[in-house]
Amino acid sequence: MPSLDVDVAASYDDCRKYWNGSSWSFGRTSTYVAAGYNSATFNKAGSGMRWLNITIPKGAIISVAYLRLHASTSYAGTVVRSKIRGELSPNPVTFSNLADFDNRPRALTTVDWEDIPAWSSGTYYNSPEIKDIIQEIIDQGDWASGNTLVLFWDDFDDLSDHNANCRRYGGSWNSTTKEPPRLHIEYFIVPVSDIDVGAYPVNRDNVASSGWTRIDKANPANASGTLHSVKVWAANSITGLRVGTFYTTNGNTLKCRDSELIGDVVSGAERTFTGLSITVVEGDYIGCYFTGGSIDRHTLEYTGIWSVSGEFIDPNDETTYTPLVGDAISLYGYGDVEVPPGLENKSANMGSKLIAVGLI
Fold first, then answer.
1. Residue in 8, 104, 10, 17 with CA at minimum distance from that of residue 49
2. Same domain membership, residue 205 and residue 142
3. Which residues, including other chains, have CB under 8 Å from residue 52's CB and lie 6 or more apart?
4. Number of domains in the chain
5. What phi and psi, each to the nearest 5 degrees, are found at residue 91?
6. Are residues 230 and 181 part of one domain?
7. Pick from 83, 297, 47, 44: nearest CA to 172
8. Same domain (yes/no): 236, 184
9. Cβ atoms within 10 A of the Cβ of 197, count?
């Protein structure tokens, strides 16, 4: 899966703003970016950061993103509460002054970075997951690979406790250690194909173990034809992976239409298998069974999966599944609109198949 690590690259591409007790103070040459509270003359602190040459194509799916800061000072005051926002501009320019900073359009998505623990000078700290912010930015109509991107990290809402050193400082481009803010992004490029089905094969925050047949409800097949390729992300290296297409016959009862045995999948990255021929009909779902290892899985905020203990992935296998609301597994198939010979009889006559596949 492609990834990107980019640092702030110029003095005026990061900046700091805070309330000094009577007015807002703004600067572009500070040695740190900041958020939080320190005193009556330094509070509601926040910062802006701009990165160049974000080489993510329009249409990409962001799977992981976070801000990495290098603590420039040891501060342990609590409790620091801050927010991360993005600028909703497709190619923002460098910061110039306070009015320019304040008038920049903010993205709708906001991520809370709260209860920040004590920071030790010289240590790197990562923000919470900000993939939804980055996704909103690159989904803009005028976004193009190579554009710039701006994030804001701040406590302008004055949410931090009013205690001394209830603030956190990360190095700026002007810091003596030259450890400026870094943006890390991992993303998935959707293949160009007639048909696609399933959830994107990305690194997720949970796992699904072996010995179960699982079917993802996300993204049912948009057309009928043949799946020639499958993408998988294994959390722990998988053995005996079989992938198939399924359709509902009654409520949570599903029947396998077609399947093929892929075999082993090495963990730790998106793996692509080609040379497949799995029949799919518009509205079908994609599922899998494997004998060892685990597949990446989310358990919240997704469309859901069906799950049953045991192997029910040979053509014509039919059983009742347990629905798991909010889940997703990293299994995705794509192919072409075509009518394979004997489509109407294929699932009845083929039995299980073991094929040679190409691993990219």
1. 8
2. no
3. 6, 9, 13, 148
4. 2
5. -155, 70
6. no
7. 47
8. no
9. 26
Residue at a domain's end among 188, 212, 241: 188
The number of angstroms, rounded, from the C-alpha of 272 to the middle of its chain's C-alpha atoms is 18
Is the Cβ–Cβ distance between 59 and 77 less than 8 Å?
Answer: no
Question: Do 290 and 328 lie in a common domain?
Answer: yes
What is the phi/psi pair of residue 348, to 5°? -80, -30
Give the domain extent around 283.
195-359
Same domain? For 181 and 254 the reply is no
- The arithmetic mean of pLDDT across residues 73-102, rounded, is 97
Quick one: CA dihedral 234, 235, 241, 246, positive or negative?
A: negative
User: 77 φ, ψ to 5°?
Assistant: -60, 145
Helix (H) or strand (E) holding 345: helix 343-349
- Amino acid, res. 189: I
pLDDT tens figures, 173-228 = 999 888 999 999 999 888 889 999 999 998 898 999 999 999 999 999 999 999 99
- CATH code (residue 43): 2.60.120
Based on the domain organization, do 174 and 238 belong to the same domain? no
Please indicate, yes or no, whether residues 122 and 236 belong to a single structural domain of this protein: no
pLDDT digits (tens, 9 = 90+) for 304-344: 999 999 999 999 999 999 999 999 999 999 999 976 545 44
